[in-house]
Design goal:
Pfam family, one: SDH_alpha
Protein name: L-serine dehydratase
Cofactor: [4Fe-4S] cluster
CATH architecture: Orthogonal Bundle
Number of helices: 13
Order of helices and strands: HHHHHHHHHHHHH
Oligomer: single chain
Number of domains: 1
GO molecular function, one term: 4 iron, 4 sulfur cluster binding
Radius of gyration: 18 Å
Number of strands: 0
EC number: 4.3.1.17
CATH topology: 2-methylcitrate dehydratase PrpD
Strand content: under 5%
Largest sheet: none
């Protein structure tokens, strides 16, 4: 079974970044040239940039009327210098909301690792790109770090809300974003693992309870909170804070928690927020 720790050890031994180890692995496994993989990742990045821009415009509304315009509100407050949490964090929040609003409006997004969690990774990495003026090459490498961790999670556990709850979707996305953010900020391979573990631990047990069965409420706002958790985890890891439980064990625990979670709390809209009085009313109105 694939383990993130193996990549950490290899990166430390060879003096490489996690992204470089993942990239070498994929070149061999897929039998494709490195540039081909970079070009594919570059296309994903282009879609992410476009979805952020469309979402921040605030022009779209979902068919249900539940989603749309909130990203623009947060961005407007940020641009006025009124943010309570600072320029970087408010940028992350706005971008995460933006991408999920585009998804809810049937726009084009990159599932990272799923459509329901597609806002976390672009929100974190594109905001860091803006704040730290990193090159596109560095940014693309960071996405390979995220992708590598995503492969480990998918193999050891799962990234499906229907199988593991929202912890498997946004929890995984937050871990992936935290690891990539650490690398982008100059952290070590070991620190990427600690950041990922801290982020995922913070979201263990999170249920998937979409109101009316739509990937809108509470999914959109959970992407913003998941992205925020990713930044907090990255900051701790970069400061030297270690995760007592290693990332691979955290992933395994997440998988087990998902198995123990009742069906009503795994994307069936039969429990949680979906069954609140307001949730039931929305479902009745939508149907």
């Amino acid at each position: 079974m694939r383990a993130y720790e193996d990549w950490v050890i290899e990166a430390e031994t060879k003096g490489l970044k996690i992204s470089e180890v993942v990239l070498q692995n994929q070149v061999e496994e897929l039998e494709q040239a490195e540039q081909v993989l970079f070009n594919r990742m570059s296309k994903n990045l282009k879609v992410m940039r476009e979805s952020v821009a469309i979402g921040l415009s605030g022009e779209r509304r979902s068919l249900s009327g539940l989603v749309g315009g909130d990203a623009a509100k947060v961005e407007a407050r940020r641009k006025k210098g009124e943010s309570l949490v600072g320029e970087l964090m408010s940028g992350v929040i706005a971008r995460a909301l933006a991408v999920l609003e585009v998804n809810a409006c049937m726009g084009k997004i990159v599932a990272a690792p799923t459509a329901g969690s597609c806002g976390v990774l672009p929100a974190v990495l594109l905001t860091i790109e803006e704040a730290r003026n990193v090159s596109e090459h560095e940014l693309l490498l960071a996405f390979f770090t995220a992708a590598g961790l995503g492969m480990v999670i998918a193999e050891r556990a799962n990234v499906s809300g229907a199988e593991g709850g929202c912890q498997a979707e946004i929890g995984s996305a937050a871990a992936m974003a935290a690891a990539a953010a650490v690398e982008l900020a100059g952290g070590s391979p070991r620190q990427t693992a600690d950041a990922a573990a801290i982020a995922m631990k913070s979201m263990l047990g999170l249920v998937c309870d979409p109101v009316a069965g739509l990937v809108e409420v509470p999914c959109v706002k959970r992407n913003a909170t998941g992205a925020s958790i990713a930044l907090v985890a990255a900051e701790m890891a970069l400061a030297g804070v270690r995760s007592v439980i290693p990332i691979d064990e955290v992933i395994d625990a997440m998988g087990e928690i998902g198995k123990q979670m009742p069906c009503a709390l795994k994307e069936t809209a039969q429990g949680g927020l979906a069954m609140t009085p307001t949730g039931r009313r929305i479902q009745a109105d939508f149907i």
